[in-house]
Amino acid sequence: MPDAPVQQKPFEEGIEKLIARLRRAELPAHVFNIYKSDDAASDVRGGAAKRRENLRRYIKAIREPRFALIGIAPGWRGARFTGVPFTDEDRLCLPGSCYDRTGKRERPYREATAGAVMDLLGARSDVICWNIVPWHPHKPGEPLSNADPDSETIGYGLEVLEFFFSRLYPNTQAVAVGNLAAEALASLRVNGQSVSVAAHLRHPAHGGVNEFRAQGRDLLGASEDE
Questions:
Q1: Which label site among 62, 72, 204, 217 has the fewest CB atoms less than 10 Å from its CB?
Q2: Strands (DSSP E) along 20-142, which ranges?
Q3: Share of the chain above pLDDT 70, in %
């Protein structure tokens, strides 16, 4: 008789269901599904599969975070090519790391916002990062650009975020990064209840990096040297 299938533990099963939701989402034309599709002009072959695996490894490494930093959407120089919120290829996909690049160009992509968040968090395992919209909104006809997500796309993202909190991180407090994320979180319901937002941080873009760092250190109890 064939061996019985190995039963997944609840956390690992939740990760797979989350990734399946991300992959099968049907999105507007101006929102690129980074976990489903490859852009032949920008992605290496199998880029979407690599991004799914990057995300899987990232979530598996952070099981019981105290906080979830919630942004609005991946930037084209950042999570668009890593699949991991608030990261970029230059800092995450180092030689010898377990994370793979997916951008076709020779130099890895580098994003200022990702750098600010990664510098703040370092190697902490008590903070997980996510976005209201986990896919990449862009300007029509400009795949390598950023655009604010519309209300329809935010609605799709909130459905995923509800699963994220209810199934994977029910005891984790949300932290909004930027005004758009804070506004969207205000409408999120998990198991019929409003989500408790522990803090609202200034977004590091557009001159906000110093304020973001100061607010983040206050929240996490980090010193200037960390």
A1: 217
A2: 31-32, 67-71, 127-131, 136-137
A3: 94
List residues bridging with 175 in a β-sheet. Answer: 69, 199
pLDDT tens for each residue of 94-144: 999 999 999 999 999 999 999 999 999 999 999 999 999 999 999 999 999
Question: Residue 222's pLDDT is what?
Answer: 59
pTM of this structure: 0.93
10-220 has which fold? Uracil-DNA Glycosylase, subunit E (3.40.470)
Q: What are 120-127's contacts with CB under 8 Å, separation 24+?
A: 120/212, 120/213, 120/216, 120/217, 120/220, 120/222, 121/69, 121/220, 122/226, 124/220, 125/61, 125/62, 125/65, 126/64, 126/65, 126/66, 126/67, 127/62, 127/65, 127/66, 127/67, 127/68, 127/69, 127/220
Delimit the domains of the chain by residue range: 10-220
Residue 54 has pLDDT above 50, yes or no: yes
Q: What are phi and psi of 167, to 5 degrees?
A: -95, -40
Helices (H) and strands (E) in the chain — how many of each?
Answer: 8, 8
User: How many whole angstroms separate alpha carbon 185 and alpha carbon 199?
Assistant: 11
Residue 219: how many other CB atoms lie within 10 Å: 18
